[in-house]
Amino acid sequence: MKWKRLNAQMSESLVNAIFLLMSGGFQDAYTYFFRGKVFANAQTGNIVLMSSYLFQLDLKHALYYCIPLVSFAVGVFVAELIHYHCKEMKKVHWRQLILVAEIVFLFMVGFIPDSLHTIANAVVSFVCAMQVQSFKKVNGRSYASTMCIGNMRSMMETLCVYVNTKDKKALKSFLHYFIVIFVFGMGAGLGYVFSKLFGAKAIWFSCVLLMISFCIMTIKEKNEVKEEEKKLELLGNKK
Predict the structure, then answer these.
(1) What is the DSSP letter of 224?
(2) How far apart are CA 160 and CA 224, in angstroms?
(3) Reduced DSSP (H G I as helix, E B as strand, rest coil) percent helix, strand, coil of the chain, to 5
(4) Which domain holds residue 77?
(5) Of 21, 47, 132, 208, which is the most buried if we count CB atoms within 10 A?
């Protein structure tokens, strides 16, 4: 009998999500407040601004907001490619590969000068897309780690269910989404403060958060393997 990794427990825990959410909020604040008022995560805002400039026939500014949009789309595509080709890997989880890529790219962003905001925003948008595509659930509940609109909708939906049915599971879901949104907001606040203090290199704090997430997944995976091996050993002894 072969053991199977419990992916939900390894990468979808609330503890792990907290660091991903804080990083997501941080990145959005970083690009908006330091990198020329572009949204790394909230691509809806970029679409609104791009379209507005297009209707003004201001192609230069339209392209400025189009670039992170395209980069975000490419990031989703690349994340799915990694998932497709690396999901059967045994030594490392494919989501950990995503985190390593995020850390490397964001570390590089810290060296991009102020005169190249467009490139920096494209890289951060690419990273955000990889993350939101790869980490979709927390404790079995769908969520987004780099934006809040879907989380807010789910939070109020579950609150309505609780008010109407007094279902404690709905209340628990409401609290989960509240925590998710609160942590994202905390990350955004830190992104603003750190950007003012450290400029381009503030993004390295996001790297630290993602490294913690990577370590959490590694520790959890090792514990799960040990537990599964113990179960198999007990089954073997019984036979």
Answers:
(1) H
(2) 36
(3) 80, 0, 20
(4) 7-137+144-238
(5) 21
- Report which of 37, 25, 125, 109 is spatially closest to residue 75, judged by C-alpha positions: 125
| 3-class SS letters over 163-218 | HHHCCHHHHHHHHHHHHHHHHHHHHHHHHHHHHHHHHHHHHHHHHHHHHHHHHHHH
Number of Cβ within a 10 Å radius of residue 104 = 11
Tell me whether residue 217 is in a domain.
yes
The tens digit of pLDDT for each residue in 61-72 reads 999 999 999 999
d(CA 18, CA 42): 19
Answer whether residue 1 is part of any domain. no
Domain count, the chain: 1
Query: Rounded mean pLDDT of 179-191?
Result: 95
Report residue 64 as tokens.
């400025």
Q: List, in order, residues 6 or more apart from 224 with CB less than 8 Å away.
A: 5, 6, 9, 10
